[in-house]
Specification:
The protein is built from 13 helices and 31 strands. It has an eight-stranded antiparallel sheet. 26% of the residues lie in helices and 30% in strands. Helix 4 packs parallel to helix 5. The chain starts with a helix and ends in a 12-residue tail after the last helix. Strand 4, helix 5 and strand 5 form a beta-alpha-beta unit. It has three domains: 263 residues, P-loop containing nucleotide triphosphate hydrolases (Rossmann fold); 99 residues, Translation factors (Elongation Factor Tu (Ef-tu), domain 3, Beta Barrel), CATH 2.40.30; 119 residues, Alpha-Beta Plaits (2-Layer Sandwich), CATH 3.30.70.3280. It is an alpha+beta fold.
């Protein structure tokens, strides 16, 4: 069995796509699925009225706004590889959800808009990848629109994030007009054809660069650029990539179907397979150890008709099989994993077995929350999943008291999923729960879901901004009379709210004995 587990794990590629909003992440996700044979029609995010929507964007607010605000797991097979694509929210307000997803990946694709270069959210998410040691493949997108000089973009990547780009493909431009890309590995030219209005773009078969229909001036300029890349040593080095020193870089247009297939095949050939996981004690958990996995996300109502709840489990070691009885490490309970599915956006497919690197959806697994570890046999402790520091705080109230039960159930569900953090004042209790969020759009999503999914008419006060630190029971006593408000999470942790950095500094100076722990910045 251990031989089969190792062989199956070697076929897996579990990766996420990170980017700033509007860099084309969701469109790229759809095209990767299209080329992987997982779907037959890709819908760009801002589709025409009545047209296709992105398969990974299933929530109503995502369809209305043309943004991704939830994570989705999408599994498909291509060329003998099993690909687990974890789509992430691009919006800054959902950094915490994205961070959780990145804990479950082995490789990340960083999407950059060719006109804008590196943007704040891209930089923030890259730092998460760097902290976790996740290697990054770069895709510079939207070459079919006016953009910056490719060499300038490469220079910016190296200066801003310290990764040396190693271009695998290179764009062919004619005074800013995108003609296609050259694959430097085999010197084949992948032409770009501008989509006809109202029709989808078609991928054109690559041709040897020597046979490409390029003018002498374009060919001469392209030769100079390729010679320059060769001269400065920009070829891909796998060891340097794994060590986090370089980023294989691809150019193209996701919307125009140019350069996407080369990126997909690079994930298979360059992306990392699952490896042994490090436990909280610093030990190594080999792939062939008994079954173990951790929950990185919980999502309710992916199918509103069934009012269900789905826990996303990343398998770390061993073989998963339907009906397996496992230990819930946090509670010590034994639970049977009977209702397991292979998630694909909003859809679900039955799954009987899975291996390291795979993501399994556990349906209606009560009491499971992000960060929980499930294992077969002796308990395994993995590193806890840190919480982000919220910045906005707003009191929520139900407008129809007859719907209070639905209101409470909705708040508990949103808190478990991590959509927002639900805090309670020790005196006010459940009558005036406080929603804590990294950004305002989290509050909008919470309101939309409370009303749309749980049928609880809700009003949310204008949010206030605070500086947050985690404290303990002794800290609560010491902060009494200081003007610092202390709130309690559902899980019992206490957080102190400071009106400003100055108030925090004064408190730390006057009450040095108070435990005030910084949370991960959003």
């Amino acid at each position: 069995m251990s031989t089969r587990v190792a062989a199956e794990a070697a076929r897996r590629r579990t990766f996420a796509i990170i980017s700033h909003p509007d860099a084309g992440k969701t469109t790229l996700t759809e095209k990767l699925l299209l080329y992987g044979g997982a779907i037959e029609l890709a819908g760009a995010v801002r589709a025409r009225s009545g047209g296709a929507h992105a398969r990974s964007d299933w929530m109503e607010i995502e369809r209305q706004r043309g943004i991704s605000v939830t994570s989705a797991a999408l599994r498909f097979e291509h060329r003998g590889y099993v690909l687990n694509l974890l789509d992430t929210p691009g919006h800054r307000d959902f950094s915490e959800d994205t961070y959780r997803v990145l804990t479950a990946t082995d490789t990340a694709i960083m999407v950059i808009d060719a006109a804008k270069g590196l943007e704040p959210q891209t930089l923030k998410l890259f730092q998460v990848c760097r902290t976790r040691g996740t290697p990054v493949i770069t895709f510079i997108n939207k070459l079919d629109r006016p953009g910056r000089d490719p060499l300038e973009l490469l220079d910016e990547i190296e200066k801003e994030i310290g990764l040396r780009p190693t271009p695998v493909t290179w764009p062919v431009l004619d005074n800013g007009r995108f003609l296609g890309v050259v694959d430097r590995r085999d010197m084949r030219f992948i032409p770009y054809a501008r989509p006809i209005r109202g029709e989808g773009a078609e991928e054109i078969t690559p041709v040897p660069l020597a046979d490409a229909d390029l003018s002498p001036d374009i060919r001469r300029r392209l030769t100079d650029e390729l010679d320059l890349l060769d001269g400065v040593g920009t070829d891909h080095d796998h060891d340097e990539f794994v060590a986090g020193h370089t980023t294989p870089t691809f150019f193209g247009s996701a919307l125009g179907n140019c350069g996407v297939r080369q990126l997909l095949e690079a994930v298979e050939e360059i992306g990392l397979p699952p490896a042994a996981w490090t436990t909280l004690d610093g030990d190594s958990l080999p792939l062939v150890a008994p079954f173990c996995g951790f929950v990185f996300k919980v999502q309710a109502n992916t199918d509103p008709r069934h009012r269900d709840r789905l826990a996303y489990l990343r398998i770390v070691s061993g073989r998963f099989e339907r009906g397996l009885s496992v230990l819930h490490e946090r509670t010590g309970r034994i639970i049977a994993l009977r209702h397991a599915h292979q998630p694909f956006g909003q859809e679900r497919l039955p799954i009987d077995e899975a291996f390291p690197g795979d993501v399994v959806g556990l349906v209606n697994a009560s009491g499971i929350r992000p960060g929980d570890v499930l294992c077969d046999g002796a308990p395994v402790r993995l590193a806890p999943m840190p919480r982000f520091a919220p910045e906005l705080f707003a009191v929520a109230r139900v407008r129809d008291t007859s719907r209070y039960k639905q209101f409470r159930r909705g708040l508990d569900q949103l808190d478990e999923e991590g959509v927002v953090q639900i805090l309670r004042h020790p005196d006010r209790g459940d009558q005036a729960p406080i929603l804590a969020a990294v950004g305002s759009m989290q509050l909008e999503v919470a309101l939309a879901r409370l009303e749309g999914e749980f049928g609880a008419p809700t009003e949310i006060d204008p949010p206030r901004q605070f500086v947050v630190r985690e404290t303990d029971a002794a800290g609560v006593e010491a902060l009494k009379g200081s003007g610092v408000e202390v709130l309690v999470r559902r899980t019992g942790e206490m957080v102190a709210l400071f009106r400003s950095e100055y108030q925090l500094e004064v408190t730390q100076r006057d009450r040095p004995q108070v435990h005030l722990e910084r949370l991960l910045a959003g």
